[in-house]
Specification:
Blueprint (H helix, E strand, L loop, with lengths): L12 H7 L18 E5 L2 E5 L5 E2 L13 H19 L9 H10 L2 E6 L13 H17 L2 E2 L48 H17 L4 E6 L4 H14 L5 E6 L16 H10 L18 H4 L4 H4 L20 H25 L1
Parallel strand pairs: 4-5, 4-6, 6-7
Antiparallel strand pairs: 1-2, 2-3
Helix pairs in contact: 4-10, 5-6, 7-10
Length: 355
């Protein structure tokens, strides 16, 4: 049969993807909504037919068509085109053209505001992990629910650690009661965290909220990857104060409670390191930690397990074996991220739908 080619006789994106499948098999009758309906093979060339019967990629006759591996090819096509849609779906405000921003806001009048400070997370992790974490969860939820993700704010507050063995007390972390420590800036750390005063943080984000309100957003989601109590109190209070008729502001964290029997999340330990491995970039450098047989004192590495933060330090004030970041993995990180994204998606859908 004679077939019509694409403009300039260049294969479409889909045809190029199908070429990459590698098995040169032809598929007929593929009722997948929005996907090509048929694939044909000409010697040395894969051709793609759309739902209208036009064939892209070649103008020569097709001499033979093979109907093999339909289920396999359907699955591959579905995966490929789902990824393509995700790539093409812009949710980050800074990369949008004006008309794309307007269209995104019309579809879902939601603005996501991810935040987290530049902060020490051991020698093996990037300083921006909290903000990267918040941005990852926000972006994935926006792809599912709709809305616009603001550029990430690499900002956060923390507080002075108090003497004693109470939760987050100096003695629980193996530090002397005379030490002056704010957040995770333990003595001897090579890089100091960029914390800002919580009052300044409140003024900044209040103005961000009001600017987004002027733009017409009906819902604003403040999402933090940082868990300092004063940081979270400020953003939570701000969400309550700025909610009014026509505007809903909610505060949430990227983290969700770990699956039992896991304890609470610590700092730069196995679970947080796994999350960064799951995000994938910037890279985690476990090779910068000492050999697995070497203990990791809290005060020397700035890595703390959750129980120590709760006032129950390990013997010797070293990271517990079950929280050791050297046991982290991208697989665990992806599982954690999946739970977080599902949880936040449910929250946003419920609150937006009821507002």
């Amino acid at each position: 049969m004679k077939v019509a080619g694409s403009p300039n006789n260049k294969p479409s994106f889909a045809a190029r993807i199908l070429l990459s499948l590698g098995d040169r098999r032809a598929i007929q009758s593929m009722p997948l909504s929005g996907l090509p309906s048929a694939l044909a093979v000409y010697p040395g060339k894969t051709l793609l037919a759309d739902a209208r019967g036009s064939l892209y990629g070649n103008q020569r006759e097709i001499q033979s068509v093979f109907c093999l591996g339909v289920d396999f090819a359907r699955r591959r096509l579905l995966i490929v085109f789902r990824k393509r849609r995700e790539i093409m779906s812009k949710v980050n405000l800074e990369s949008m053209l004006p008309h794309e921003f307007v269209e995104a806001q019309q579809k879902a009048s939601i603005a996501y505001v991810p935040t987290g400070p530049i902060e020490w997370h051991g020698p093996h992790m990037p300083l921006g992990i909290d903000a990267f974490h918040a941005a990852k969860v926000a972006s994935e939820v926006a792809k599912r629910v709709g809305g616009v993700v603001l550029p990430t704010f690499f900002l956060g507050a923390d507080s002075l650690l108090l003497p004693g063995k109470e939760p987050q007390g100096l003695a629980s972390l193996g530090l002397p009661d005379s030490a002056h420590v704010i957040g995770m800036d333990f003595p001897g750390m090579a890089v100091k965290s960029l914390y800002i005063d919580e009052a300044v943080l409140g003024v900044l984000f209040r103005d961000v909220i009001r600017a987004l309100e002027r733009q017409g957003f009906r819902m604003i989601v403040l999402i933090s990857g940082h868990g300092a109590p004063n940081h979270m109190r400020m953003l939570s209070r701000l969400a309550l104060e700025e909610t009014r008729p026509g505007l809903l502001v909610i505060f949430t964290t990227a983290w969700v409670p770990p699956v039992p029997p896991e304890g609470g999340v610590g700092h730069a330990e196995r679970m947080e390191t796994s999350v960064m491995c799951g995000i994938g970039a910037p890279e985690v450098r476990l090779d910068l930690l000492p050999h697995r047989d070497t203990p990791l004192p809290y005060k020397d590495f700035g890595i703390v397990d959750g129980l120590a933060f709760d006032g129950f330090p390990n013997d010797g004030f070293v990271v517990r074996a079950e929280a050791d970041p050297r046991n982290s993995s991208a697989e665990e990180g992806n599982e954690i991220l999946s739970r977080e994204i599902d949880s936040m998606e449910a929250l946003v859908r419920t609150r937006y739908g009821s507002f």
